[in-house]
Amino acid sequence: MDAGIVSYGAYIPRYRIKPEEIGKVWGEDGAARGKGLGILAKSIPSPDEDVITISVEAARNALKRSGIDPQEIGAIYTGSESHPYAVKPTSTVVAEAIMAAPDMTAADYEFACKAGTAALQNVLGLVESGMIKYGVAIGADTSQGAPGDPLEYSASAGGAAYLVGKERVIAKINGMYSYTTDTPDFWRREGQPYPSHGGRFTGEPAYFRHVLTAAKKMMEKMGTKPEDYDYVVLHQPNGKFPRRAAKKLGFAPEQLEIGLLTPRIGNTYSGAVPLGLSAVLDISKPGDRILAVSFGSGAGSDAFDITVTDEMEKFERKRAPLVSEMVENEVFIDYAAYVKYRKKIRRKGE
Amino acid sequence: MNMPRFWREISGRYNLIGSRCGNCGEYFFPKRDICPKCHRKSMGKMESVKFSGTGKVISYSIVHDPHPAYSDMRPYVMAIIELDEGPKLTSQIVDCEPEDVHTGMRVKATFRKLAEDGKEGVIFYGYKFKPE
User: Fold this and answer.
1) How far apart are alpha carbons B104 and B109 in whole angstroms?
2) What is the pTM of this model?
3) Tens of pLDDT along A101-156?
4) CB distance A96–B14 less than 8 Å?
5) What b/e string do you get for A248-278 counting C-beta neighbours within 10 Å, with b at 16 or more?
6) A296 close to A113: Cβ distance less than 8 angstroms
């Protein structure tokens, strides 16, 4: 495939809450919950941040590093399960805000936590076919967790954007593979503010079956083994699942750790694999090989086999904040401020 | 906020697009069709300019009695910012504590939600500033 990643940019809001603080309100041992999930804190958007602002900041960071004319962008697709509008795209605001409009196409994607990688596949297809010169794929979320639900410990906010093209490619896509079934492990009905899930059913038949199969079949297709990769990035609904999946696949902990952000920022849903891959690209060097596998409930996994090219030597990563810098920029708030920021308080007139 | 009016201002609100007078070289934000100094001489010579988005705080106020759209952020800081190209504008300063804001502080533009027209209405986006 000639189409590949030309640039990337990430965004993580600065507010955080600890599991201890959440557990305190619901009469649970939050520290034990956090330990069980492998989560130390989760990110929270400020009251003036949402998927649109996160997507715009991530896309702008990608453009700062690339230096391309945004008018050459032919498509922008944003994947999320928390688009601010049910009808009216996130991607049109992004297009105007990065000055890519109007000679282009745009749409929003939804596939639980893998909408961002679904957007990436589609942009890669358009670029590879020659229909567009550059395209932008974004995965971002300000995910929802009902008050008192176990999801509240993990559902967080963040996103990353990928600029895809055929020229000055910093990371080549060697191959893609997707595994898709009808598995109702997690869903949110139209008009409902919070998602529902199948509890333990989200594990073996959903996350593990899809992630493990997609990773194995990707490696089969490429004729590779876990030791051929420098890094592996897996969907990370918590800190536990990706570690167990990596072990089952035969990856060493050090191959996974760089791209595993959930322990510090929680589950950013559609932003999870895009952000994990950004963290890996922040430190990778030419020749590094990466396996990235997303998972979206409902259910499906997208796998990408990626090699960092010599172009990475010239790539100006420092023009935008690194993922590690955004992870470190944290301000802890209490549960009361959290429910206010996430608009979980019912006010007069609502 | 009036929706068509906001829509007309998108280039300025999203991307800090202002004007430069082709006659005297002065920069303006928001956009102007005619230079207030050169008047007739500037006609047809006003150019669109995208400002860098960096500047410094000239003056500021910590707001304790907020506009309803900003009540979740109380207390918050509103500041007059001088862009590096010269024009001044008013904006909220975010991503820092009110007590950390000071005159002369370097700031950069960021993209945030400005307001929403109730639960069912349009959401307005645009620039705010944060520490550089």
Assistant:
1) 15
2) 0.97
3) 999 999 999 999 999 999 999 999 999 999 999 999 999 999 999 999 999 999 99
4) yes
5) ebebeeebbebbbbbbbbbbbbbbbbbbbbb
6) yes
Q: Give the range among A84-93, A273-282, A339-348 with minimum mean pLDDT.
A: A339-348
Amino acid at A200: R
Mean pLDDT of A315-319: 96
Q: Which of A47, A93, A343 sits opposite B73 (nearest CB)?
A: A47
* Residues making up chain A, counted from first to last: 350
Residues 6+ apart with CB under 8 A from A31: A19, A20, A23
* CA-based nearest residue to A64, from A325, A329, A317, A322: A317
Partners of A57 on chain B (C-beta within 8 Å) are: 110-111
CB contact under 8 A, B125 and A53: yes
Best of B125, B128, B129, B130 to mutate (most A CBs within 10 Å, chain A): B125
Averaged pLDDT for residues A11-40: 97
Domain ranges in chain B?
A: 52-131
CATH 3.30.70 fits B52-131, yes or no: no
Chain A residue closest in CA terms to B50: A99
3-state SS of chain B: helix, strand, coil percent to 5? 20, 40, 40
Residues 6+ apart with CB under 8 A from A127: A3, A133, A134, A135, A164, A165, A166
CB A141 within 8 A of CB A270: yes
Q: Which positions of A are catalytic?
A: 81, 113, 235
Helix (H) or strand (E) holding B3: helix B3-8
Is A340 in Cβ contact with B72 (below 8 Å)? yes
Domains and CATH numbers, chain A: 4-170+324-341 (3.40.47.10), 173-312 (3.40.47.10)
Write down the pLDDT at residue A199.
83
